[in-house]
Amino acid sequence: MTAVATPRTPGTGTGAAGPASRRGVARTVLRLHRAALLVWGLAVLGLTGWLVWLTEVTADEARAREEACDRAGRDWCDTTFGVFGFTEPVDWIALLTAHLFLAVAAFAGASLIGRELESGTAHLAWTQGVTPARWLTAKLAVPALAVTAGASALVLVFRWAWAANADLLWGTDWTQSHLFAARGPVTVAYGLCALAVGALTALLLRRALPALGVSVAAVWLLALALADHRASLWPAVHRSSATRVLDPPDTSWVLETGALVHGRRVPNVQFWRCEGAVEARRRCLDDLGVTGFYTTYHPESHFWPLQLVETGVVLAVAALAAVAAFRVLRRRTA
User: Fold this and answer.
1) Which of 94, 132, 258, 285 is buried most deeply by CB count within 10 Å?
2) Rounded distance, CA 278 to CA 14, Å?
């Protein structure tokens, strides 16, 4: 009897990379890490629900107390309630939202990649028709979708709560690092970067706990470095005057103020010692060598340029880390 060979349909069979196979790998990732995805979803829902409660319930209570204080003629009671009843919890939500990427880095380094490499389950998957590249693609794609969706939802709800109750947010402004992050896409970018850095670290170290520690430390240092240099990510506004001290707009991020001494910028020069009449003040300033005053600041309109530039930088780091992770995996499985 002569055997008849049946042609293999592209995208089927052992080792094929068809859509059905890719969906199978994605389902496996969902099944293996459903507990982590559930925790992530509960965290997003919890923070979102907290924000909605503060906006729809607590904000009305705060305003009612403000009106009662005004009618009674008392001072500071409205501010005290605003700080402890509304502003403080909003500040905590912003802090948690801005630092969720640390949890993503820990998960990616330890549970997502590191544990499977350490236990050998990744190698088992590679012997069952799943190529290492497809395995890593699914490992990154599924959590990336969850991180993007969850972080985006938190940012949108936080922006809504902030805009609806800006008058109650006493002592906060857009320049504070955690509030800056929680109100823009940079939060999503840090989450994706943490995922890629965690995967790269796990592939390099191949052990769960060391990968966890190094991943968290790496993305935390990146965030600190960018926060320290955030002001330089977009050109600041510079104003100078030969006759008076300049006051930037109230909502500005003031970077530096000072005097022009013999044509040089000297920050924080003590020209306030020169008081009295105009002529006496002028002579005092001349003795100090002051020829003018300057201020450098970011107006609030620079929020989005600063956000988008930092987001681009963080996404570039994420892309580089992802590419490096695939190269490390290919080299070690060749």
Assistant:
1) 94
2) 90
Say yes or no: 147 and 191 in one domain.
yes
- Structurally, the chain folds into a number of domains equal to 2
User: How far lies 189's CA from each of 37, 92, 214, in Å?
Assistant: 18, 20, 19
pLDDT of residue 76: 57
pLDDT tens column, 263-292: 777 776 655 566 655 566 666 766 667 777
Give the count of beta carbons closer than 10 Å to the beta carbon of residue 240: 14
Q: In this structure, is residue 16 part of a structural domain?
A: no
Does residue 108 sit within a domain? Answer: yes
Does position 182 have pLDDT exceeding 90, yes or no?
yes
Q: Which of 305, 128, 301, 122 is nearest to 203 (CA)?
A: 122
Residue span of the structural domain in which 165 resides: 24-228+303-333
61 contacts 69 by C-beta, under 8 angstroms = no
170, with CB counted inside 10 A (0-12, 13-18, 19+), is middle
pTM (2 decimals)?
0.84
Contact (Cβ atoms closer than 8 angstroms) between residue 148 and residue 188: yes
- DSSP line for 4-21: PPPPPPTT-STT---HHH
Same domain, 33 and 70: yes
Q: What is the pLDDT at residue 307?
A: 96
